[in-house]
Every structure is written in C-alpha cells, then in structure tokens.
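Recall that a protein's primary structure is simply its ordered list of amino acids. Everything else, from secondary elements to tertiary packing, is in principle encoded there. The following example makes that idea concrete.
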Amino acid sequence: MHNALAAYKTQSDTLMNFPIIIVRHLPASGMALFPFILLNHQKLKADARIMNHEKIHLRQQLELLIFPFYILYLINYLFNRFKYKNHHEAYLNIVFEKEAYLMDYNLNYLDKRKFWNWVRYLKVKQ
C-alpha cells in the first residue's frame, strides 16, 4: 500500500494530531486551516464535538490536496449565497459543512469514514 494511503487509513487520532492555535477574535468557535485548528478560546480544546468537526474539515482538505478544498468551499458558498440570499443558510449548506455538522457528534466517524464522503452531500435541496 502506498505510504500516503497507509497514513490516511491509520486511526484519526494519530493522523489528526495537528497544532491548535487560539485566536481570540476568531469569528467562529473553530476553524480548520490546514495544518492548523484555530479556536477562539482555550477551553474549546476540551470540546470533543468541536474538535471532531474541525478534524473532519482537515480530512476533507487532505483528500482534496488542500488548496482545491478552499476553492470548492468558496464556490459552494457563493452558489448557496445566491440561492438562499442569507449568509447563515448559505454556510450551513456548504457540502463540507453538511458532512461536518451531521457527523461531528460521532467521535469514531473519522475511523470509519469513506474517502471523499463529502460528495454524498452534493444532493440539491429542493
């Protein structure tokens, strides 16, 4: 098995041991900017759900070789912004956010998650 694929298949806690940076004026509780997890408060390091949410985003970023993730994220947001006419609704309907919000409660999700699983959330909402 190729080394990168082998690393991808290892347990998420081992694979996802990325630096955490506290940014007090961050406009969100957390944000994943590969290879960092940014949090707006130190106490959020202990919030398993937020940490899992951000680790899901880091996995998505790795799958798309990082930079294309940001391009797709922005395109999806702009499309949704036009469609929903509302920032919050547009943000919640970004395919990457849909996966992360729906699965962040499942702390074992990254151990069993299929490659490019975010594609499942591309379905157009009527």
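Residues 3-122 form one domain. DSSP finds seven helices and three strands in the chain.
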